């Protein structure tokens, strides 16, 4: 059985760093390695690579937001992750079509708009509960095998925390991303 406080701790940790966290970071919060494994087994998080996990719902929300903003089908989008020199992980969404580089550049230059659109998609207007999703939010043909595992609420909490952090930093004149 997963403890809701462990899941909440991992969601908040992931919200502070692009939807990802490491086993070591989870352990520093008091979440044991076997508890992280249980969150994987329960499909709350997904392994990105050895010792790194991400909330799969956040990536699908970003794909849906990018698709809406760029006015292209989700099938034309791809994504990858990269570890930066400082140890943080970056997510890159790209359009795998001719001229796709201009789409990637636009997303980079409009990241706050992308995050706001992702939040709008998962904010609950779709009518589904926090622990599920449907075609009005992040459920699409290409993730149908994962739909029972996606959590609109987890993505909502992630983007809500991210945008709240952006607002606090903007008030102080600091830059978040």
Task: Describe the overall structure.
- There is one protein chain.
- This protein has 177 residues and is an alpha+beta fold.
- The chain has one domain.
- The chain contains 7 helices and 5 strands.
- It has helices spanning 4-15, 23-28, 33-41, 56-70, 100-109, 111-122, 152-172, and strands at 20-22, 46-49, 52-54, 77-83, 89-95.
- The strands form 2 sheets. The protein has a 3-stranded antiparallel beta sheet with strand order 1-3-2.
- A hairpin with a 2-residue loop joins strand 2 and strand 3.
- The chain is globular.
- The termini are far apart.
- The model has no long low-confidence stretch (mean pLDDT 78).
Topology summary:
Elements: H1 4-15, E1 20-22, H2 23-28, H3 33-41, E2 46-49, E3 52-54, H4 56-70, E4 77-83, E5 89-95, H5 100-109, H6 111-122, H7 152-172
Antiparallel strand pairs: 1-3, 2-3, 4-5
């Amino acid at each position: 059985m997963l403890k809701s406080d462990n899941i909440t701790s991992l969601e908040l940790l992931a919200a502070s760093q692009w939807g990802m966290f490491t086993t070591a970071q989870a352990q520093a919060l008091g979440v044991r390695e076997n508890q992280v494994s249980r969150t994987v087994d329960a499909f709350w998080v997904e392994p990105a690579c050895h010792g790194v996990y991400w909330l799969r719902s956040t990536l699908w929300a970003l794909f849906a937001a990018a698709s809406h903003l760029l006015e292209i089908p989700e099938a034309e989008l791809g994504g990858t992750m990269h570890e930066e020199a400082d140890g943080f992980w970056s997510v890159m969404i790209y359009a795998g079509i001719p001229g796709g580089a201009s789409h990637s550049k636009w997303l980079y230059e409009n990241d706050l708009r992308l995050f706001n659109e992702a939040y709008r998609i998962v904010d609950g207007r779709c009518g589904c509960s926090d622990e599920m999703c449907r075609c009005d939010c992040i459920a699409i043909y290409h993730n149908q095998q994962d739909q029972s595992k996606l959590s609109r609420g987890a993505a909502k909490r992630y983007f809500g925390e991210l945008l709240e952090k952006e607002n606090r930093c903007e008030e102080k004149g600091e830059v978040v991303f």
